[in-house]
Write a structure and sequence with these properties.
Pfam families: Aldo_ket_red. This is Aldo/keto reductase. The protein is built from twelve helices and ten strands. By secondary structure, the protein is of the alpha/beta class. It has a single domain, classed as Alpha-Beta Barrel (TIM Barrel), CATH 3.20.20. Bound molecules: NADP nicotinamide-adenine-dinucleotide phosphate.
């Protein structure tokens, strides 16, 4: 049985000179449950100590509809203020362009303002990867490109990515950017497989974008599957996980990482133990048979 290549411990972020870990940690849920800066610091350490150096946040994380905009970034800012040396150990990714309930704004005025606001909240001088969170249909990609390139030139951001963009939107922004786009962040998981066959990952490979997978466990749904299809996907992952002595979630990360586009799963857990456990995915090995068995379960029908 042929085995797929193992994921590397480090990759380059797109065509940039930024080295990233093959797994990322996401801070969407960081500012929940009254988490203190001390508790948040413990999670940051857990990720970094496990070799997970790409940390992903966004300006709307922490938004609960009651004015909590920016809470996750601000909490990370507290962690970094208490321990500035942590900044050197991480590749910091954030996003902007959604201002609920507006909802999307990528005009030059708005976007340049929110980049500055993110820098202030996180108390950093530069963001290594700045991503447009969701496309603003009313913003011309040429204007968005100019705003982002001005921010690169000013040293406020080091590289540019997109999230939740259609392929045409990605292509249009890339066309107007003189600096290459380095990343795309769609939802990808064993329960969300659209991009394997709709051309998104093919486009990422063609343009040299690193795909960052958001909600790699389906937001947790993979751990408590309800539909027959979701249960079948979980059962396939469990079979392979048992053979390799890892958990279902680790098998899910490993399955994504085995794809040739170099998918980087963004671990969403806010448990230090479960974040660290994610790194076990690096030592998994996948046969084509096992990889396709998970895909077939997710499709809910045989391949032609
Ligand atoms: P996920 O990994 O699919 O789901 C994480 C959730 O599953 C957590 O609530 C976690 O709870 C739970 N979980 C239960 N059992 C678990 C286990 N054994 N191992 C790990 N987690 C387990 O990811 P996500 O939180 O939905 O999203 C991950 C990241 O993607 C976010 O932090 C954010 O950076 C990014 N994201 C981006 C977008 C976008 O539009 N660009 C949208 C959504 C998310 P515990 O914390 O208790 O472990």
């Amino acid at each position: 049985m042929s085995t797929l290549p193992a994921p590397p411990e480090w990759r380059r972020l797109g065509s940039s000179d930024i080295a990233i870990s093959s797994l990322a940690w996401g801070m969407w849920r960081l500012a929940e449950n009254g988490r203190t800066a001390g508790e948040a610091a413990r999670l940051v350490h857990a990720a970094l100590d496990a070799g997970i150096t790409l940390l992903d946040t966004a300006d709307i994380y922490g938004f609960d509809g009651e004015g909590g905009f920016g809470d996750a970034e601000a909490l990370l800012g507290e962690v970094l203020a208490a321990e500035p040396a942590l900044r050197e150990r991480m590749v910091l990714a954030s996003k902007g362009g959604i201002m609920p309930p507006l909802p999307y704004d990528q005009s030059a005025e708005y976007l340049s303002g929110v980049i500055d606001a993110s820098l202030r909240r996180m108390r950093v001088e530069t963001i290594d990867l700045y991503q447009i969170h969701r496309p603003d249909i009313l913003a011309h990609p040429q204007e968005v490109a100019r705003t982002l390139e001005d921010a690169v030139a000013a040293g406020k951001i080091r590289s540019i990515g997109v999230s939740n963009f259609t392929q045409a939107q990605t292509e249009a922004l890339a066309h107007f950017l003189a600096t290459p786009l380095v990343a795309t962040q769609p939802e990808i998981s064993p329960l969300r497989i659209d991009c394997f066959e709709n051309g998104e990952l093919d486009q990422a490979m063609r343009l040299g974008l690193t795909p960052l997978a958001w909600s790699p466990l389906g937001g947790g749904r993979l751990l408590s599957p309800e539909s027959a299809r979701d249960k079948a996907v979980a059962a396939e992952l469990d079979r392979i996980a048992a053979e390799q002595n890892v958990s279902r979630s680790v098998a899910a990360y490993g399955w994504l990482m085995a794809h040739p586009a170099g998918i980087v799963p963004i671990i969403g857990s806010q448990s230090a133990e479960r974040i660290a456990e994610g790194a076990q995915a690096l030592s998994m090995h996948w046969t084509r048979q096992d990889w396709y068995a998970v895909l077939v379960a997710a499709r809910g029908e045989r391949l032609p």
